[in-house]
Specification:
Arc Repressor Mutant, subunit A; Tetracycline Repressor, domain 2; 2 domains; mainly alpha; 9 helices
Length: 168
């Protein structure tokens, strides 16, 4: 993280990262297919899709996604320390990485859309709901990383309130 923060993501080489970690570039590539994968890891996609799928089918696709995401956010611990915020801040400040986030988000959208499709929900509706929710969640992550004075969970719930306000 320090190399990226001091030099910028684009100016930092894999050789520099490997040297700082005390490994070879070949070892680096055993763990990360590309340099951006150091920053873009998202292990929660399958859990998010499962929580969305568990929402009542009687709800609209967008309500199922927002309620599923709220449930997922409530199950995940707030990031400890500042490493996650630093990682996301580097992404937010690097245009090429923001494009990579879009590609990563597409994979998440696909999993969510597949969880939504059913007798009363066509793929187009499912994709629209998934895309809207993931765009909101991306906005929350980037705003939080750039210094919003709220927790990540609060940022997530704030953007989900735009899509489906909480009642009660």
């Amino acid at each position: 993280m320090g190399l990226f923060e001091r030099q910028g993501f684009e100016a930092t080489t894999v050789d520099q990262i490997a040297a700082a970690a005390g490994v070879t570039a070949m070892t680096f590539f055993r763990y990360f297919p590309a340099k951006e994968d150091v920053l873009l890891d998202d292990p929660y996609d399958p859990m998010i899709a499962a929580v969305v799928a568990a929402q009542p089918a009687s709800l609209s696709p967008l309500a199922r996604v927002t309620r599923g995401l709220r449930a997922a956010v409530s199950q995940l611990p707030e990031p400890l320390g500042d490493m996650t915020r630093r990682r996301v801040r580097i992404v937010a400040q690097t245009p090429g990485l923001r494009a990579a986030v879009a590609a990563s988000t597409t994979r998440t959208e696909d999993l969510i859309a597949q969880a939504l499709v059913g007798p009363d929900v066509a793929m187009l509706q499912a994709r629209a709901a998934a895309a809207a929710a993931m765009a909101a969640m991306t906005a929350a992550m980037l705003e939080w990383a750039l210094g919003a004075e709220i927790t990540l969970g609060e940022a997530a719930n704030a953007v989900l309130d735009v899509l489906e306000p909480r009642h009660g």
